[in-house]
Design brief:
By secondary structure, the chain is of the alpha/beta class. Helix content is 50%, strand content 15%. The chain has two domains: 161 residues, Rossmann fold, CATH 3.40.50.720; 119 residues, N-(1-d-carboxylethyl)-l-norvaline Dehydrogenase, domain 2 (Orthogonal Bundle). A six-stranded parallel sheet has the order 3-2-1-4-5-6, with helices on both faces. It has a three-stranded mixed sheet with strand order 7-8-9. Helix 4 links the parallel strand 5 and strand 6. Helix 7 packs across helix 10 and helix 10 packs antiparallel against helix 11. The radius of gyration is 20 Å and the shape is globular. 45% of the residues are buried. Bound molecules: NADP nicotinamide-adenine-dinucleotide phosphate. NADP nicotinamide-adenine-dinucleotide phosphate binds next to helix 1, helix 3 and helix 10.
């Protein structure tokens, strides 16, 4: 099987390296030139055109920033879908909104390409250690063909339902992630304002039963004032916008998620977009 991986950002570079390390016949493509050696990507073909990258592939993975990037790369007359062989499988791991995934599946079908939406849970460390969780939407038979490769990059594959349901579940997970980060940050800053030491709060609060477990790792970043991106804040802001759009499509109010959306949008606007999403703490701290 010939595999192509498109999008070598924080996540994609690490995911592709696991395929390469498992001796998969791999071609990679990224919009801008990347230092491939730095990604430990050995024995891969590096393509400088997306059309060339996909033309012989049996399975194509994409891990791009947002729906507009997927649209730019795959759709239209010059899009990658037009260069794919018949009956190949395109697995989009990008976090997009469910209605976009349904549209991507329709575009794929028009070009005789099979489609799965397979966004991931887990961040840079999990991508590094092949411990991602895949949330998959689409046909079971198609997933069976792709599953061995997903297992090289992750530790669990959950088929959530038909096309778009992987993306739907990812919306659920990320709105909780975004809000939990705000809840944790606000609580610590409030405690500090009342005179409790910041060190105590950052050590103890993440271990309370009321806290989301991932705050343990984010508390360490806050303590070290290290906001190097694992999950860039601008992408969390994008995900909250997609959740909000989906809520409108579903006629479902999302009270707290929409408040969080505005807060991340403000932090993004203030220049924190390429910091880790935990920099929402820094933003609130600066504005307290
Ligand atoms: N980081 C995380 O913790 C995490 C966790 C779960 C899910 N996700 C999701 O996974 C996806 C990738 O995240 P990431 O952290 O790897 O992002 P990232 O580091 O910002 O990488 C984004 C990738 O998309 C490419 N791209 C952006 N716009 C493009 C366009 N118009 N045309 C072609 N390529 C384009 C970038 O290419 P260039 O290098 O040329 O800019 C890069 O390869 C996002 O949807 C994100 O929400 C991220």
């Amino acid at each position: 099987m010939k595999i192509t991986f498109i999008g070598l950002g924080i996540m994609g570079s690490r995911m592709a390296s696991h395929l390469a390390n498992n001796n998969v016949e791999l071609t990679v493509y990224n919009r801008t030139k990347k230092d491939i050696a730095a990604f430990k990507l050995q024995n891969v073909i590096i393509s400088d055109s997306v059309q060339h990258a996909v033309k012989d592939a049996d399975i194509i993975f994409s891990m791009l920033s947002a729906p507009n990037a997927v649209e730019e790369v795959f759709f239209g007359e010059e899009g990658a879908l037009k260069s794919m062989k018949d009956n190949v499988i395109w697995v989009d791991c990008t976090t997009v909104n469910p209605s976009f995934s349904v549209r991507a599946s329709q575009e794929a079908k028009l070009n005789n390409v099979r489609f799965l939406d397979a966004p991931v849970s887990g961040s840079l460390p999990q991508a590094d250690n092949a411990e991602l969780l895949f949330f998959v939407g689409g046909e079971k038979e198609t997933l069976l063909e792709v599953e061995p490769y997903l297992n090289m990059m992750g530790k669990q594959v959950l088929q959530i339902g038909e096309t778009g349901k992987g993306a739907s579940f990812k919306m659920v997970v990320n709105m909780m992630l975004a809000q939990s980060m705000v809840i944790f940050s606000e609580a610590v800053l409030f405690g500090e304002k009342m005179g409790i030491s910041k060190e105590f709060l950052l050590d103890v609060v993440p271990n309370l039963i009321v806290s989301a477990p991932f705050t343990k790792f984010k508390a360490e970043k806050i303590k070290a004032k290290n906001y190097e991106p694992q999950f860039p804040l601008e992408l969390m802001s994008k995900d909250l916008n997609l959740a909000s759009l989906t809520a409108i499509e579903q006629n479902q109010p999302l009270f707290l998620a929409n408040l969080a959306k505005e807060l991340y949008a403000e932090a993004n606007k203030s220049g924190m977009g390429r910091l880790d999403m935990s920099a929402i703490f820094k933003y609130l701290e600066q504005n307290k």
